[in-house]
Write a structure and sequence with these properties.
- The chain is built from 5 helices and 12 strands.
- It has helices at about 15-30, 50-55, 100-115, 195-210, 225, and strands spanning about 1-10, 35-40, 45-50, 70, 75-80, 85-90, 125, 130-135, 135-145, 150-155, 215, 220.
- The strands form 2 sheets. Strands 1, 2, 6, 7, 8, 9, 10, 11 and 12 form a 9-stranded mixed sheet that branches.
- It starts with a strand and ends with a helix.
- About 45% of the residues are buried.
């Protein structure tokens, strides 16, 4: 089974990580690096994929309250900020894996099973890809591909600042439909541990081999040298 390199950043700007992803994607295409997973948190920013204009999201008056960036992933408007774990898979998907829907389903299954470890039963909803809980979306997914190497990824809201993500019509959904685990009352796992970034990273990495079919390596701390 292929190795999966883990790069863990603390808080990095979306712009810095977006540039790094482009570099890593090309390196992966050229077989200069193994499949790589970036774990990170961003300062507050709203990213706008091509679907945002079609959804009319650019006309959302609430959007004027946020810094924004236009991105080339699939999907529409996505919130990033404190209290959110962002996971970017720079993975070369092999023959037999090369289906966008199948890859998105893998990521959904991965998140749902990580949440199940914490006593939370997430699910899919036909209204929008991602992971849902109690009629609300708590995890967004949007990818871009080049030669079947993925870029961008998923954003799991565990304790975002009150009413920041809820104020937006994310991915064309009504305002308030996207929220966080804590806003829905899920603050601890079954053993009483706080549902913070560390706990969710741990749950995801435990299931990475099963759902990504790659073996996670020991996490490395993010540095410029690792992505140059």
């Amino acid at each position: 089974m292929r190795p999966l390199r883990i790069l863990r950043a603390d808080v990095e700007s979306h712009e810095v990580v977006d540039d790094a992803m482009a570099s890593l994607q090309q390196q992966r295409i050229d077989n200069k690096i193994p499949d790589t997973l970036i774990l990170v948190q961003h300062p507050e920013v709203v990213t706008l994929g091509p679907k945002a204009e079609r959804d009319g999201a650019l006309e959302d008056p609430a959007l004027h309250d946020y810094p924004t960036r236009v991105v080339d992933r699939g999907g529409g408007m996505t919130y990033h900020g404190p209290g959110q774990l962002v996971v970017y898979p720079i993975i070369k998907w092999q023959v037999g894996e090369q289906s966008v829907r199948s890859i998105i389903n893998r990521l959904e299954d991965w998140v749902m099973n990580a949440l199940a470890d914490c006593g939370i039963e997430g699910y899919r909803d036909e209204r929008m890809m991602g992971v849902w809980l109690e009629e609300h979306k708590v995890c967004s997914i949007g990818l871009a591909f080049k030669h079947w190497v993925s870029r961008h990824g998923l954003a799991l809201n565990y304790n975002t600042n009150l009413n920041r993500v809820e104020a937006l019509s994310c991915c064309g959904l009504p305002a308030g439909m996207t929220t966080s685990l804590q806003a829905l009352g899920h603050t601890h796992d079954l053993e009483g541990a706080i549902l913070d970034r560390e706990r969710l990273e741990q749950a995801l990495l435990v299931h990475a081999e099963q759902y990504l079919e790659r073996v996670p390596m020991h996490p490395e701390a993010w540095s410029v040298e690792l992505v140059a």
